[in-house]
Structure formats: structure tokens, C-alpha cells
Design goal:
The chain is of the alpha/beta class and about 425 residues long. The protein has 14 helices and 19 strands.
Length: about 425
């Protein structure tokens, strides 16, 4: 068993200072919300609306009220029980635009055949607990693409089908009805990703707002997302980017509270940093990880709302050692309270490319990590004192032929599927 208190990135005074700055942004500068219906609801809740500018100025009292209502007690320590299984439950979702073929290195838009082949891969491998819309098919009209893809998956798999990103509000009700047919559960929303992302700084566009409102009709949780890029769409300083990220999350929670106050709340932070040498946004940089971690800790400690850092983004464009490094770097956040999991999504090129080769490599690394986190049992059978004594009495030099080794080697040791240990 692993146990202990979470590390803290900053003291309470620093977090309170960021909180006050985020509240100031929302009350003094407001958020641009490009949807008249949502602005009307916020105005009725007491917010000041600049209609020509489509800008909402939030009241601090409403922000505090929403957070107090949505927040729940959060753990500040970790306990990971002993236990390990060979197969890890791996998700399969994302709606990413490009497929990266390897070793050709060919990056292309996904075809109908690609959709079917990726579904067959996830259906075949025991490690995948679901089959999802991991790619967006470029050969199908985008107005019906999520429905078409879901039908293809349903014809291939008997596993649960995971949801994907929602770009148009008219997708939502048909996907709910399709989910009901597939699962037999009334109001099944499992085919719909609940998150709604802001455009930094503090912009909620009309299409996203329409999706947000439609999701509330079907009872989806309120999951705002924030993706500031320090030096580009946010200040270049880490504290400034965190302040903006917190302000966007707060705005999302207030909107959800006004529209559907009993909907559970969480959030996603997927910040980046600008590399001024190459003028590219980096989502796997140490600065981006610090921004995500600080935002996560502040929301948990001050608001009692758990948010998830999106650690699966990597900036490299092909599988290899750089991808491995960038995928492993977020593990530094585990002592601070981030879930002890390795993001196994197969993403490259900052989330624009999906590589099944990369995902299988990540699966191998994830299973090794899960074995480590499973630790080990301490009892008479595992200490094996009698086995050691018996072996020594016979002047043996190894334990290969003992019944104890035969009984425990599969449950005690992890054996890679792809990595080769042979000389």
C-alpha cells in the first residue's frame, strides 16, 4: 500500500492571490459570450451585460455562491491499495482529425476504412475496455459524421462505445437516442463528451454556447475547459496563465450553475506555452505542466472542485524517444495529487494526429507503471521463509524449480507484450 499527503505547489496565500485576480477579471473585464440566450439567463441572475459587445460582467457574490454550491470535500492525501492485474482498462476515444501511419510516416485525414480498422483493434485487445470515436472520418458529411461513426462501431464491437467531441448542438439528441438503443438505459449520454472549452482569453463562441445549453437539457455534467497558451493567448508568465485559466473555469461553473444548478461540476485544463524561437505552441513543456498543476491544485484546495489536467498532448510528430519523454514528463505531477495514471491516448502533434503504434507503445509503458503502483503483499506466503530455508538446505542456487515460483510468477511479475528483454 502506498500512502501519504499530497505535495503543495504553493502556499495558501499565493493561491488566494491568484483567486482574487481571477475574480477581478470576471467582474471588471468580463467574458465575451456570443449567445443571446445564455447572456439573457446570466442577466436574469444579476450579471451586467454589455449587449453590443456581447460581454458578461459577473458578480462576485454569484461566483462565490456557485462555487460554494458546486464544491465538495476533496482528499488531500493518497492511499493506493495493494493489488495489480495484468490487463489495464484502457479507453479509446477522442475524435482526432488525422491518422499517422507508421513506419511510412504518412499523415492523412481519416477514411471510413480507418474508422473500422481502429475499432477492430480496440475490440480485439483485452486491454481496451471500450471502443470509441478515436478518429473523425473526413469522407462523411460532418453534419452526420458522429452518428455514422457510432453506427459503424456498433456493428463491430460488443464493448461499450465511448463518446467523442461535440461540434454541433444538433448532434446531441440523436446521440442520446442512439445511446439509449445501444445500452437500454433511458437518457444514456455516454456517446457525448461533456466538456465545453473557452477560447482564451475568456471567449465562449456561439457554437460552443449552443452545445453547452443543449447538453444541459440532457443532464450532462458541467465540465468547462480552459486552454490558455502563455505568451500567446495568455501572459507569458506562469502565474498570469494560471489566473486566466482559473477565471475561465469559474465562468464556466457560474454559467452551469445558472442554467442547471444541480448538475455536477468538474473541469479540464490543457494549457500550453509559446516557443518564441519557432513561434509554435507547446503543450508538453514543463511550463505547461506547471500551469496545469497549479490550476488543478487551486481549484481542489480553494473551491473543492476536481479538475483534470489533459496530459496526453505531446508536441512531437512521430513515435520515438521524444514522444516517450513528453508522455512520461507529466508523471512528475503525481505527488501533487494528480491521478497516478499514464495518459495512453496515442496522440501526437498536439492532439492533431492519432497513431495506433504510439498508443500501443504507451499501453506497454502504462502497464509497467500499473505494476509498480500495485506494490506487493507482505504475508507468510510472499515472504516465503520456508521456501528459502528448504532451498538452502538442499544447497540449491536458484528457485526456478520450486512450486512457489510456479504458483506466483504470473501474478507477481509483469511481462511486456511489445518490448523485448531478450539479448
Amino acid at each position: 500500500m502506498i500512502m501519504g499527503e499530497y505535495w503543495q505547489l504553493h502556499d495558501e496565500a499565493a493561491l488566494q492571490r491568484i483567486d482574487r485576480a481571477a475574480i477581478h477579471l470576471l467582474t471588471a473585464c468580463g467574458a465575451r459570450i456570443k449567445h443571446a440566450g445564455l447572456l439573457s439567463m446570466l442577466e436574469e441572475a444579476g450579471c451586467r451585460i454589455d449587449w453590443p459587445a456581447e460581454r458578461c460582467y459577473f458578480r462576485e457574490a454569484l461566483i462565490r455562491q456557485a462555487v460554494a454550491h458546486l464544491g465538495k470535500p476533496q482528499r488531500h492525501s493518497v492511499t493506493i491499495p495493494t493489488g495489480w492485474q495484468r490487463h489495464h482498462s484502457l479507453g479509446h476515444s477522442g475524435s482526432f482529425p488525422h491518422l499517422l501511419e507508421w513506419p511510412k510516416g504518412q499523415r492523412r485525414l481519416a477514411t471510413q476504412q480507418d474508422i473500422r480498422e481502429m475499432a477492430k483493434m480496440a475490440q480485439m485487445l483485452d486491454e481496451f475496455c471500450s471502443v470509441g470515436r478515436v478518429l473523425t472520418c473526413a469522407e462523411v458529411d460532418p453534419r452526420i459524421e458522429p452518428l455514422w461513426t457510432t453506427m459503424q462501431l456498433a456493428a463491430i464491437t460488443d464493448k461499450p462505445i465511448a463518446g467523442g467531441e461535440i461540434l454541433y448542438p444538433q448532434y446531441i439528441e440523436p446521440l442520446v437516442r442512439m445511446g439509449e438503443v445501444l445500452s437500454g438505459v433511458p437518457g444514456d449520454t455516454s456517446l457525448i463528451a461533456p466538456c465545453d472549452f473557452f477560447i482564451a482569453p475568456l471567449i465562449f463562441d456561439q457554437q460552443q454556447a449552443a452545445c453547452f445549453l443543449e447538453k444541459r437539457k440532457f443532464g450532462l455534467p458541467n465540465v468547462p475547459g480552459t486552454m490558455p497558451i502563455s505568451g500567446l493567448s495568455a501572459p507569458v508568465t506562469i502565474a498570469g496563465a494560471v489566473t486566466l485559466a482559473v477565471a475561465e473555469l469559474l465562468a464556466g461553473w457560474v454559467m452551469g450553475y445558472v442554467v442547471s444548478p444541480e448538475a455536477p461540476a468538474s473541469g479540464i485544463v490543457a494549457s500550453g506555452s509559446i516557443d518564441l524561437r519557432a513561434t509554435t505552441a507547446c503543450f508538453g513543456s514543463p511550463e505547461a505542466l506547471l500551469q496545469d498543476l497549479a490550476t488543478t491544485q487551486l481549484c481542489r484546495r480553494l473551491y473543492g472542485i476536481a479538475i483534470t489536467p489533459a496530459t496526453g498532448y505531446t508536441d512531437c510528430t512521430k513515435p520515438g524517444i521524444e514522444a516517450v519523454f513528453l508522455k512520461m514528463l507529466p508523471l512528475l505531477m503525481i505527488p501533487f495529487g494528480v491521478a497516478p495514471e499514464f495518459c495512453c491516448s496515442g496522440l501526437l502533434s498536439a492532439g492533431q494526429d492519432y497513431s495506433p503504434v504510439q498508443q500501443l507503445l504507451e499501453l506497454e509503458m502504462q502497464e509497467a507503471m500499473q505494476r509498480f503502483w500495485g506494490t506487493f503483499d507482505v504475508n507468510d506466503e510472499t515472504i516465503a521463509l520456508e521456501v528459502i530455508e528448504e532451498t538452502m538446505r538442499h544447497a540449491a542456487t536458484n528457485f526456478l524449480e520450486t512450486d512457489h515460483t510456479l504458483a506466483h510468477y504470473r501474478t507477481e511479475q509483469w511481462y511486456p507484450r511489445l518490448f523485448k528483454r531478450l539479448p
